[in-house]
């Protein structure tokens, strides 16, 4: 959707330049200077993120603005990576149960109270974090903090609700199996991190969902929902002092981890170059994902790899633009009808990551699309140009400023940053890191992670044409004479 919007905006701008009066060179120069100054001022005028740590270890962080609304949320260092094979799915189950009533607000009373505020409640679970957040009017911030506190400290976990939600989750799992993109990425994790906790799916297995008990869910909450593992984040028209006061009032009883108690630690998940193929010739399209091991969240190489992904670009037949797109791979895809869509990704975790690309193609185009995609990787390693890097950096800056759009995105940015980096990294600092990237850095960093590395591959659908793993491995380098 974002890329499609960019294409439409670009077309509109093109028509305006073609049909409107031609501006003078002086006016163009002035416009460019004004645009550059506006971007710089935007970065400098972003409100400071204030962080306060309570006595029990809960971090309270906020960014104040003049919005009439606010988003307040809890980001928790817990997810499927903290589970073992027998409890896989507990985090996802707990997320469902947390929204189904508390001891103080049983049944649907919790949801009704949220609705009475005209607020919006949501949550999600990933491999390394769980989040619950509420968007409401700024004046209702103290009430929102109380609701979030009740949600994580007094989850009812009634047996009747557990059985009801068990059926809902099992139905969701069936529906998720029809989303081949998600299935492909789950397979990619399963083969890349086989035998480790990162190989688990977020939702868990059908057998586990059928087997998990109230005791399993309660144990998960008691183990992971501790104050030092949480961030209470807020963005919008709120006062940080009032947020801290509300947090002290409602989260004072949140358990912390005393000295001597066992703290869940993450085991190193080693990357394995291997593949999973789920061939089904009855499906119309093939889904292919190929990845190498990338860096963890805090590694500075991530900025360079994101620039590299912006050079590769992304493509979907619905985007428009055709062969005139700046992405070389998109141009090839259009000219030779190689795929329906492709998208690079850089998925990061605390100590590792997956850097790769995913594409959807017709059965007879799989080989050609894979050849062109791997060739684009090799080109990044050997012959990236400064003009490509400059274009990619501008794309990243645009995506970065888009994070300012709405209180929910800002709130999520604050919460996830404090979990991943231990602080909120200002956009001005991100801009400086992006500006420091040049073509040589892209070539060097891409060579470090891509060149002559063993990839992990996941393929679903009519994939007969996908070459043998050894052939794909041999395309991870170019023979240089």
Automatic annotation (TrEMBL):
<keyword id="KW-0496">Mitochondrion</keyword>
<dbReference type="InterPro" id="IPR011249">
    <property type="entry name" value="Metalloenz_LuxS/M16"/>
</dbReference>
<dbReference type="GO" id="GO:0046872">
    <property type="term" value="F:metal ion binding"/>
</dbReference>
<dbReference type="InterPro" id="IPR007863">
    <property type="entry name" value="Peptidase_M16_C"/>
</dbReference>
<feature type="domain" description="Peptidase M16 N-terminal">
    <location>
        <begin position="59"/>
        <end position="205"/>
    </location>
</feature>
<comment type="subunit">
    <text>Component of the ubiquinol-cytochrome c oxidoreductase (cytochrome b-c1 complex, complex III, CIII), a multisubunit enzyme composed of 11 subunits. The complex is composed of 3 respiratory subunits cytochrome b, cytochrome c1 and Rieske protein UQCRFS1, 2 core protein subunits UQCRC1/QCR1 and UQCRC2/QCR2, and 6 low-molecular weight protein subunits UQCRH/QCR6, UQCRB/QCR7, UQCRQ/QCR8, UQCR10/QCR9, UQCR11/QCR10 and subunit 9, the cleavage product of Rieske protein UQCRFS1.</text>
</comment>
<keyword id="KW-0472">Membrane</keyword>
<dbReference type="GO" id="GO:0032991">
    <property type="term" value="C:protein-containing complex"/>
</dbReference>
<keyword id="KW-0809">Transit peptide</keyword>
<dbReference type="Pfam" id="PF05193">
    <property type="entry name" value="Peptidase_M16_C"/>
</dbReference>
<keyword id="KW-0813">Transport</keyword>
<keyword id="KW-0999">Mitochondrion inner membrane</keyword>
<keyword id="KW-0597">Phosphoprotein</keyword>
<feature type="domain" description="Peptidase M16 C-terminal">
    <location>
        <begin position="212"/>
        <end position="395"/>
    </location>
</feature>
<protein>
    <recommendedName>
        <fullName>Cytochrome b-c1 complex subunit 1, mitochondrial</fullName>
    </recommendedName>
</protein>
<dbReference type="InterPro" id="IPR050361">
    <property type="entry name" value="MPP/UQCRC_Complex"/>
</dbReference>
<dbReference type="InterPro" id="IPR011765">
    <property type="entry name" value="Pept_M16_N"/>
</dbReference>
<dbReference type="GO" id="GO:0005743">
    <property type="term" value="C:mitochondrial inner membrane"/>
</dbReference>
<keyword id="KW-0007">Acetylation</keyword>
<keyword id="KW-0249">Electron transport</keyword>
<comment type="similarity">
    <text>Belongs to the peptidase M16 family. UQCRC1/QCR1 subfamily.</text>
</comment>
<keyword id="KW-0679">Respiratory chain</keyword>
<dbReference type="Pfam" id="PF00675">
    <property type="entry name" value="Peptidase_M16"/>
</dbReference>
